[in-house]
């Protein structure tokens, strides 16, 4: 597979209003789509990104209002990185997070880059990573109406961290099927354990998986503050269908072709149980809304539009 990098990542929240406040008012991301979980339209699915939610910039959240706290552990997507333009931006963000009483670890080094680990209000594990040394996949463009200084704004998803007990079968899927290559390793600043880096496409911060191999942790129990799945960029629908054929040929269980309206997808689990998605770069979030007004009202894909009144009646409004 000739994957282009990270497409989006979908996490869990129990508080849609608090989630919007944190990611738009503190982190300054743009809510590019306010819609519903297409598999359970009684709950929100919120998309944040750069100015128009370019592929590779999208951080999304499913709202599960009564979800318990995530129990961190193995077989998980354990940390999500968000890219900022340079090292100077991290200094801005360290001060901003402190001013907003956001828990963080200060600026440290990770794989030759400066990073700033922190947590959101539900203990979602996040890292701001400097793109100063990036020579790979380009970042996006911060929204010029951001609550944070656009000069230092978030420009996309960075390396996604996986924690697994057994590297060999996951490495085989990544390298032999998905086209990733082993790029290096480093010692984690907190655990002291080795982290193995894989990259795809042009490489760089927008195309990396960082894998922590841990045999001393119980399996993660997903809840608010946890991550549901990570998606990888595919050029178009034709490629998605080719990859689906490959998955079927080698006997990997999958979702089949899925039309999410804003992109086309296929889902499957890698050998350690983590949910992967392949998603097309288009059509995009301005398919059904003007680019100037993305995320301002509830957007529904065509197959859910006839149920709008019912769906809106079950959702708690978000300002």
Automatic annotation (TrEMBL):
What name does UniProt use for this protein? Glyoxalase family protein
Tell me which residues make up the VOC domain.
Answer: 5-131, 156-281
Q: Matching SUPFAM superfamilies, A to Z?
A: Glyoxalase/Bleomycin resistance protein/Dihydroxybiphenyl dioxygenase (SSF54593)
Q: What is the organism field in this record?
A: Tenuibacillus multivorans
Secretion signal span: none
Gene3D superfamilies named in the record: 2,3-Dihydroxybiphenyl 1,2-Dioxygenase, domain 1
